[in-house]
Amino acid sequence: MNTAIFPGSFDPFTLGHMDILKSALKLFDKVVIAVGYNMQKKGLFEVDERISIIKESLKGMDDVEVVSYTGLTVTFCRQLGIKFIIRGLRTTTDFEMERVVAQANSRMAPEILTVFIPSGHEFSFISSTVVRDVLINGGDASLLLPEGVDISRYIKGK
Length: 158
Prior knowledge:
The protein is α/β, with parallel strands linked by helices. It has one domain (3-155): 3-Layer(aba) Sandwich (Rossmann fold), CATH 3.40.50. It is 39% helix and 20% strand. The chain has helices spanning 15-27, 47-57, 73-80, 92-108, 128-136, 152-155; strands at residues 3-8, 30-36, 64-69, 84-89, 113-118. The strands form 2 sheets. It has a 3-stranded parallel sheet, sandwiched between helices. Strands 4-5 form a two-stranded parallel ribbon. Strand 4, helix 4 (92-108) and strand 5 form a beta-alpha-beta unit. The longest helix has 17 residues, at 92-108. The chain is globular, with a radius of gyration of 15 Å.
């Protein structure tokens, strides 16, 4: 089975992430969405909440697994026996940053390949940062989130 990992903080999982995931599923039999703990970022949502939000988004998508992890992505890939890392690209700025990370990963784990997938133009403006800003300021982020996600259940008290 051809499996890839799609790592990120997903704080929260957006329509842009879903777009990348759907494209990845055209290339791979299975995708593991790996929600990383990043001690340098204080997220709006806890990791377990992010996982729940993602799972709400994936109704009927049996070829996707959602997990959390700590440490280096390439180390986690090796633990799972996964040889491909999916990275979504919205802009050339994303590419420059992701290229550097991919080169470092390749140096540490040459057997693991990073696959860049560009987002559809209609999703290129969507980021978790934009969604968080909308939510924090009391706006309606539903048009930026996958169908079926009730973000209000998670945002109360934040």
